[in-house]
Amino acid sequence: MAMNKRVLLKSRPKGWVTEADFQIDEAPIQQPGDGQVLVRNHWLSLDPYMRGRMNDTKSYAAKAELGEVMVGGTVGEVLESRDPSLKPGDFVVGSLGWQQYGTASAKTFRRIDTKAAPAQAYLGVVGMPGVTAWVGLLTIGEPKPGETVVVSAASGAVGSVVGQIAKLKGARAVGVAGGPEKCRYVVDELKFDACVDYKSPDFVKSLEAATPKGVDVYFENVGGEVLDAVSRRFNAFARMPLCGLISQYNETNPMGLRHLHAFLTNRVKLQGFIVSDKLELWPPALKDLAEWVSSGKIKYRESIAHGLDNAPKAFIGLLKGENFGKQLVKLA
């Protein structure tokens, strides 16, 4: 009997995630029932939101259950189909989690065109991270020509797209990233106007120099000290799409907001958002993103781990900022 390698959630982390929180096992491949398809996963997406799913707390989505396959987005090839909407050989994007094979309702998948873009791009720039950037920046940030847009985690899957869209809309894009190499990439390859290294002892002064006219839009992915510094640069009526707080996900005593008064005095609009709440915006977002990528107006980079066994290590590296661009695991 053919077997399916899987990564299960073994324990709930207290503080930083460790590889011991995961368990690798094998189970028989589940055959599809009526209306279902069997998919062989080729790519697994690793994303910061997964850290929250590991906790036993109320959130916007169901927690990952102990002893079950760890949640995650996937791209794979249909091997067997018992639904007329998909056929063997089709490539699809879905949410089968950390495993080599998966069976689910055909309705939970979206067929993709691997001639238009590489299969794994549908987990990145023309997938959920790209749509997250589009929705957060354009519907909450609403950048205007000449305004200053700051984005944290600027070399990551979401942040890199945010800055490039801001430039396409005529705004000035300033990134915040960790280390000189990432900052060079953000400026030299992605064409941001500036990038500030949050690891530098001169971070606050460098941020001030990079935002001489203040900050009109801050796309937040990080939290902590970076949010603390940027909040002191807000202009009146600034907008802050709150996408993530990755610097705080593993903290047992998370850092709060020190400069809340800046939001009041500057009448800042702060709005958290979850991209799955706005499914009606996915088609126009994906259309724009596909056009911008194919025309070379948006560039992207990927960090690739090889094999399911390396998924836990790669995920921990993502949380530590060791990835460069979209973090993926190649499964086939």
Features:
single chain; 332 residues; alpha/beta; Quinone Oxidoreductase, Chain A, domain 1; Rossmann fold; 2 domains; seven-stranded mixed sheet; six-stranded parallel sheet; 9 helices; 25% helix; 26% strand; globular
List the helices and strands and how they pair.
Blueprint: E1 3-9, E2 22-28, E3 36-45, H1 49-53, E4 74-81, E5 91-94, E6 101-105, E7 110-111, H2 128-141, E8 148-152, H3 159-168, E9 172-177, H4 180-188, E10 194-197, H5 203-210, E11 215-219, H6 224-231, E12 234-242, H7 260-265, E13 269-272, H8 282-294, E14 302-306, H9 311-319, E15 326-330
Terminal Cα span? 20 Å
Report the CATH C-level class of the largest domain: Alpha Beta
- Roughly what fraction of the amino acids lie in strands? 25-35%
Uncertain spans = none
Shape: globular
* Sheet with most strands: 7 strands, mixed
Q: Can you give the helix content as a percent range? A: 10-25%
Give the structural class.
alpha/beta
Question: How many beta-strand segments?
Answer: 15
CA-atom Rg in angstroms: 20 Å
Question: What is the CATH topology of the largest domain?
Answer: Quinone Oxidoreductase, Chain A, domain 1
CATH architectural category of the largest domain: Alpha-Beta Complex
Helix count equals 9
Sketch the topology as an H/E string, one letter per element.
EEEHEEEEHEHEHEHEHEHEHEHE
Give the CATH H-level superfamily of the largest domain: Medium-chain alcohol dehydrogenases, catalytic domain
* Rounded mean pLDDT score: 96
Number of domains: 2
